[in-house]
């Protein structure tokens, strides 16, 4: 096993040296998105040489869609490539580490087999974490959207235009980076300020969010913003009522999920208490 470990290390080192010049610029540019930048050129080299993107096109398309929902379509391709490299790099590290553990512990091929099984599970673990982040982002957007719509109603009622109201919603919020909805809304406001058409900015905003409720919000604005006045206010009020009901439903769901996550720790605590209470009685009986 020790010989196999050194053989893996030597082969990996040689391939890394061969791949480094070709992918150095890409790795340097996207270093923040790579978990192990030093080993990433080897993963990119294997992805291209083995044509993994062609063989795993269906799986990578799901990753691409998730990346587009998280970061927008402009950077989704690059982030998908970095995601693939991170998974492959982690797999190589696990196989190499399990080989070393097998050599040190004299476990033979068992540790290597465990490492291969763990490597096969890595893509699912990485993708589950990615989809969890996307679900969290969409939930945050749905929780924040009713407040934005309410603020829009107040501002439009006070005589502000839709563009002014959107700008106010962004400018008067502290810690905007903690709000995924306001980050995307700020990007839309910036596009409008750069003389982009209002409809195009809102359509791009809708695509970046990828949430049905945001789509209803943008559609309401696009259908009524030219009319303004009472018609826009009434439409936003109806939408606000619907969104608040959905927010209540989501909050209830999140509460139920939180309580269900507490069941296992409570069972463990109960078992520990039972052991502590029953142990003296069992020892006395012995």
UniProtKB/TrEMBL annotation:
Subcellular location: Cell membrane
Pfam families given in the database record: T2SSF (PF00482)
Entry annotated with the keyword 4Fe-4S: no
Membrane topology term: Multi-pass membrane protein
GO cellular component terms, semicolon-separated: plasma membrane
Transmembrane domains' residue ranges: 83-105, 111-131, 262-283
Residue stretches making up the Type II secretion system protein GspF domain: 150-278
Keyword Membrane carried by entry: yes
Name of the protein in question: Type II secretion system protein
């Amino acid at each position: 096993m020790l010989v196999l470990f050194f053989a893996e290390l030597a082969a990996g080192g040689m391939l890394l040296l061969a791949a480094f010049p070709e992918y150095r610029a890409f790795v340097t540019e996207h270093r923040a998105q790579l978990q192990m930048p030093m080993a990433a050129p080897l993963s990119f080299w294997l992805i291209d040489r083995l044509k993994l993107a062609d063989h795993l096109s269906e799986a990578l398309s799901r990753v691409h869609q998730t990346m587009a929902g998280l970061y927008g379509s402009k950077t989704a391709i690059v982030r998908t490539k970095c995601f693939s490299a991170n998974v492959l790099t982690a797999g190589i590290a696990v196989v190499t580490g399990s080989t070393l553990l097998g050599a040190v512990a004299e476990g033979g091929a068992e540790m290597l087999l465990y490492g291969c099984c763990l490597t096969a599970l890595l893509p699912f673990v990485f993708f589950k974490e990615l989809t969890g982040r996307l679900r969290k982002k969409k939930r945050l957007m749905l929780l924040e959207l009713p407040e934005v719509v309410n603020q829009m109603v107040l501002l439009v009622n006070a005589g502000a235009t839709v563009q002014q109201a959107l700008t106010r919603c962004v400018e008067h919020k502290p810690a905007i980076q903690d709000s995924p909805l306001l980050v995307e809304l700020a990007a839309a406001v910036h596009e409008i300020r750069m003389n982009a058409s209002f409809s195009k900015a809102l359509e791009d905003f809708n695509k970046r969010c990828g949430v049905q409720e945001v789509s209803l919000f943008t559609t309401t604005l696009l259908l009524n913003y030219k009319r303004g006045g009472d018609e826009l206010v009434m439409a936003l009020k109806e939408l606000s009522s619907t969104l608040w009901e959905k927010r209540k439903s989501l909050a209830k769901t999140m509460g139920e999920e939180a309580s269900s996550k507490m069941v296992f720790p409570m069972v463990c605590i109960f078992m520990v208490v039972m052991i502590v209470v029953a142990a003296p009685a069992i020892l006395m009986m012995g």
